[in-house]
Design goal:
By secondary structure, the chain is α/β, with parallel strands linked by helices. The protein has twelve helices and twelve strands. Helix 9 links the parallel strand 6 and strand 7. 46% of the residues are buried.
Length: 346
C-alpha cells in the first residue's frame, strides 16, 4: 500500500506537506497542492483518503501525554522540551493543533475519556507516569498513538538507539586506557527502556573485549535527578574506590555525581573520568565541561509526527524506530599515556 512517505519521496515534499494537501488544509500554493494530488491519484492513494474523510470527524487535535515525575523538569526536560517544540511545528504544518492531556481534568477523567471528550484524532505519548495501568490500554483504544519514550503494547515507539550509545561509552573509556569503569544508572524498567538499554549496550561492549563485567561496579540510582546521582555516586565510590571512570545514564545524575566527587577532593578527569547522556543545556556550565551523548530531538519528533500522521490516515506504523545519539567529546575524559594492565574485570 502506498504511504505518505512514498508520495513524499516521489514529489520531494515533506510528509506533513503531503498530509496537508491530501486533507485539504494548511497554507499551500495551488501549484504544490495540485502536484501532490496528481501524484496521489496516479498512485491510487486519493480514493483511500477521500473515503476516510467521509467517515471521520476531523477535530484537527493531537493529544499529548507529558508527565515528569522522574526528573521534575517539566517543559525544561533536556529531551522532551525540544522534542515537543519540533513535534508541534511538524504537526501544525500538517494542519493540526496540540492539546495537553491531564488526569486532573474534569475530576480525574482518564486520558482516553479526555481524548474522546475532545474528539482527539491522535495521541503523542511523551512521558507518562511510571507504571500507569492506562498505558496498557492505549494501543487498543482505537485512537492512533505514537510514543517518544515508552514501550507500550500496540503503539509505535520512536526512541534513541540507547544500546549503541552504551557501547560507544564503554569503547571511549576502554580506548582511553580505562579498565576500572563504573556504571551509574537510573531505575531499570522494561517499558521505559533508556537506562536498561544503555546498561545492556555498555556491558555488551565490555564483554566484546573478552572481559567479564564485575557487578560491583554497577549502581542503580532511585530516580533521575541530581540528588539521586549524588547519593548513587557516593555508594558506588565507597564500594569501589579504585574506579577511574564512570558512565552515567543522564546528565542530571552526572551533575550530582560530579558534585559528590569534587566534595571528597577528587579531580575530574584526572582522578575519575565521566561521560553523561542528554547534552543538557546546563552541561556548558559544568567544570570541566561534560562529555555526553546528544539525543536527536528534532529527528525523533519528526519521525513521531510522520508515524502518527500515517496512522491517522489508516496506515499502521512499525513497532519501534530507533534514532542514533551523537557522542559529544569534551573535557571530562582522561586518556592514559600508559594503559593500565590490571582491571576491574576478570
Amino acid at each position: 500500500m502506498i504511504t505518505i512517505y512514498d508520495l513524499a519521496k516521489q514529489t520531494g515534499f515533506s510528509a506533513p506537506t503531503i498530509s496537508k494537501a491530501l486533507n485539504g488544509n494548511g497554507k499551500l500554493s495551488e501549484e504544490t497542492r495540485q502536484i501532490i494530488l496528481d501524484a496521489a491519484k496516479k498512485a491510487g492513494y486519493t480514493a483511500n483518503m477521500a473515503a476516510k474523510a467521509l467517515s471521520t470527524k476531523h477535530s484537527r487535535l493531537i493529544g499529548v501525554i507529558l508527565e515528569d515525575v522522574a526528573m521534575k523538569r517539566g517543559f525544561e526536560h533536556p529531551l522532551f522540551g525540544g522534542l515537543l517544540n519540533k513535534f508541534r511545528h511538524e504537526i501544525e504544518m500538517a494542519g493540526y493543533d496540540l492539546l495537553f492531556l491531564s488526569k486532573h481534568f474534569n475530576d480525574g477523567m482518564s486520558y482516553i475519556d479526555h481524548c474522546r471528550y475532545r474528539d482527539v484524532e491522535g495521541i503523542l505519548i511523551v512521558n507518562p507516569i511510571d507504571d500507569d495501568p492506562e498505558m496498557k490500554t492505549l494501543g487498543a483504544c482505537g485512537i492512533p498513538c505514537v510514543s517518544a519514550n515508552e514501550f507500550i503494547p500496540g503503539v509505535c515507539a520512536v526512541i534513541s538507539d540507547n544500546e549503541t550509545a552504551g557501547r560507544r561509552a564503554a569503547r571511549e573509556f576502554y580506548e582511553a586506557g580505562h579498565r576500572k569503569i563504573g556504571f551509574l544508572g537510573a531505575p531499570f524498567r522494561e517499558n521505559s527502556p533508556a537506562a536498561l538499554e544503555r546498561y545492556k549496550g555498555f556491558k555488551a561492549e565490555i564483554e566484546a573485549y573478552g572481559l567479564e563485567f564485575d557487578e560491583r561496579y554497577l549502581e542503580v540510582c532511585d530516580a533521575w535527578w541530581d540528588q539521586a546521582g549524588y547519593d548513587g555516586m557516593k555508594k558506588l565510590y565507597e564500594r569501589c574506590p579504585d574506579i577511574t571512570a564512570v558512565f552515567i545514564v543522564c546528565d542530571a545524575l552526572a551533575f550530582g555525581a560530579m558534585k559528590y566527587l569534587l566534595e571528597i577532593g577528587k579531580t575530574i578527569p584526572d582522578d575519575i573520568s565521566v561521560i553523561g547522556f542528554d547534552d543538557d543545556t546546563t552541561v556548558l556550565k559544568a567544570a570541566p565541561m561534560l562529555s555526553t551523548f546528544r539525543q536527536d530531538r528534532d529527528r525523533i519528533a519528526q519521525l513521531a509526527s510522520e508515524v502518527l500522521l500515517q496512522e491517522i490516515a489508516g496506515i499502521p506504523g512499525p513497532e519501534v524506530v530507533r534514532v542514533p545519539a551523537e557522542y559529544i567529546s569534551r573535557a571530562s575524559v582522561r586518556r592514559f599515556v600508559h594503559v593500565p594492565q590490571m582491571g576491574f574485570i576478570s
